[in-house]
Structure formats: structure tokens, C-alpha cells
Design a protein that fits this description.
Layout: E1 4-9, H1 26-42, E2 49-53, H2 56-64, E3 68-71, H3 76-90, E4 95-99, E5 118-122, E6 129-135, H4 148-158, E7 163-165, H5 178-184, H6 188-191
């Protein structure tokens, strides 16, 4: 998988998973965020991973795991994805996966590189976008947030490239709210 890379935007562990406040303490939310992101990095063995962040603790953590660090120069997830994509394109990376750091079942993530064009993996509700695969030299406007899957699909269609949508896969499970924990059939102890 030469000239491939994975971009992983990660926000501060201390401020992560606020929608889980009703079921997890601040330290549990931080541990969960760190653990899920570590699992994503671990399944990417053999392919460079760049963590895009603004937080010093996250940067140190990423370097300890063997990932590269890209400092986010723009606010939010859309800015992080754009910053990361621009940075790795300059490094000669030809194809990237931009993935959420909170995938519950990341095993097999690199299989998404088998598809040409643009790959879109919506969350299990077909609302958000958990993974985007694309060439690094593409002019693509990221549109994360509620309803992002349809906006990313429309953006992909404007590119005139082949589009592969992968629904109902394990990559559709991310950890945003208490229902996600319940639906995963895992306990918090399984994930931390």
C-alpha cells in the first residue's frame, strides 16, 4: 500500500464524548476516546497514520504510538480534514482514508483502499460520515456534522469520479451517544 495514508482527526481527550456525560464520568470519557483511537491506529499497521490535532496531550500520545502529527490550523472537523489532506498531498501520499477516531469495530479498515475513486462509509443511521477514502489531489469540500453523508455524497458526485458507498458495515458503528454503546453489544469495560 505504497503512497497510501490514514488521516485521523482527534480532539482533546479531556473534552471528548460530551454526549456520553449521562453515562460516563469525565475520566471514563477520556479513557474511552483514547482507547478507541488507539484501536484505529493499531489496525492501520503498515500504512502511515497522521493524527490531526490541536492538543498537546493528543500530539504526544500520537507520537508514542508511532503516528505522525499534523497540527490543525483550521477550526473543527472540516478544517482538520482539509488541513490533513493538504499536508499529506505535499508529502507525496496519493490516496487517503479520513476516518473518525471513535470507530467501535475498526478491524479491516485498510480494506477500503481496495476501492477506486471516492469511498463513503456512512454511520449506522446513514446520517454522518465515518470514513471517506479519496485521492489526495482532489478538490473536495468536507461537510461533517449532522446529515453529512448526503452532503459528502453530493460533493463526491460533483467530482465525476467513481463512488463506492459502503453501508451496513462494522465501520458504521462509532461512539457518539449512549445508544451507540448499547447497539454495539459491548460494555464500556470491553472498550477501555
Amino acid at each position: 500500500m505504497e503512497n497510501y495514508g490514514v488521516l485521523l482527526p482527534v480532539k482533546s481527550f479531556a473534552n471528548a464524548k460530551v454526549r456520553l456525560t449521562s453515562v460516563l464520568s469525565p475520566s471514563e470519557r477520556a479513557a474511552l476516546s483514547r482507547s478507541l483511537a488507539e484501536r484505529v491506529i493499531q489496525v492501520c499497521e503498515g500504512v502511515p497514520v497522521w493524527v490531526i490535532c490541536e492538543d498537546e496531550e493528543v500530539a504526544s500520545w500520537a507520537l508514542q504510538l508511532g503516528a505522525e502529527v499534523i497540527r490543525n490550523t483550521q477550526p473543527g472537523l472540516n478544517g482538520a480534514a482539509q488541513t490533513g489532506l493538504s499536508a499529506v498531498a505535499k508529502e507525496g501520499v496519493k490516496r487517503v482514508l479520513i476516518t473518525h477516531a471513535d470507530l467501535i469495530f475498526p478491524e479491516g479498515l485498510l480494506s477500503l483502499f481496495e476501492h477506486d475513486g471516492i469511498v463513503l462509509v456512512p454511520d449506522r443511521h446513514n446520517d454522518g460520515t465515518n470514513v471517506i477514502g479519496l485521492p489526495s489531489d482532489i478538490d473536495f469540500s468536507f461537510k461533517y456534522g449532522p446529515g453529512s453523508f448526503l452532503r459528502h455524497k453530493a460533493e463526491a458526485e460533483m467530482s465525476k469520479m467513481p463512488i463506492k458507498v459502503i453501508r451496513n458495515s462494522n465501520f458504521g458503528f462509532d461512539m457518539d451517544n449512549p445508544d451507540d454503546l448499547y447497539e454495539s453489544k459491548l460494555s464500556i469495560e470491553d472498550l477501555i
